[in-house]
Amino acid sequence: MSEGFTITRQIGIDAGHRIPDHGSKCRHLHGHRYVVEATCRPVDGTLQAAGEENGMVLDFGFLKEEMMAHVDAPCDHGLILSFHDEEVLAMLAPPGIDTGAWLEELRGTVCAQGYAATEETRLGQKLYVIPFPPTAECLARHWYERLDPAVSARSRGKAELVKVTVWETPNCRADYGVG
Ligand SMILES: Nc1nc2c(c(=O)[nH]1)N=C([C@H](O)[C@H](O)COP(=O)(O)OP(=O)(O)OP(=O)(O)O)CN2
Fold first, then answer.
1. Is residue 130 in some structural domain?
2. What is the distance in A from the centroid of ligand 1 to the CA of 172?
3. Which CATH number does the domain housing residue 36 bear?
4. How confident is the model at residue 179, as a pLDDT?
5. Which of 40, 90, 98, 111 has the highest CB neighbour count under 10 A?
6. Would the CB of 19 count as within 6 Å of ligand 1?
7. Which pTM value belongs to this model?
């Protein structure tokens, strides 16, 4: 990365997941305290020069609001699953409805908007469904893709998202972003 300013905001969420294809313990349903970091830089390399964000890339508070809306609100205390994980998803189908039709509707939503977030499930379990395994890498890319337009809009085109980092444990992280 070239010389210049970046800012990074961190949030933490608790969520469950499983990696269905994993050959060992990660195929079991389990949870993490995910730490998610978003790093931004000024589009033109300079800090804002007027207004309430004078001297800033982007107000940390604005960045937090976007991360809370796009990461925390749909995923915190939820279960993050791949839509290919049909056996687990089927267990969460709301009682009294056709499970196959419910899975088909979920798949349609994921295909249309890249994810499905719902609590209309068995036990009201909060569910976040994505089209790939919920590894740290895939989640970093997914949250990057959700936050990228939000950062541009919130900064009125003055800041851009450089990368999203997902800490799955205190020792393991994945990064996704521009080179
Ligand atoms: N490249 C990746 N490898 C693994 C991922 C991943 O998302 N990307 N995920 C897992 C599991 O989800 C698992 O929960 C984490 O694995 P692991 O580091 O082995 O878990 P520990 O509890 O032993 O972590 P410590 O930090 O050492 O306590 C596996 N691999």
1. yes
2. 7
3. 3.30.479.10
4. 73
5. 40
6. yes
7. 0.95
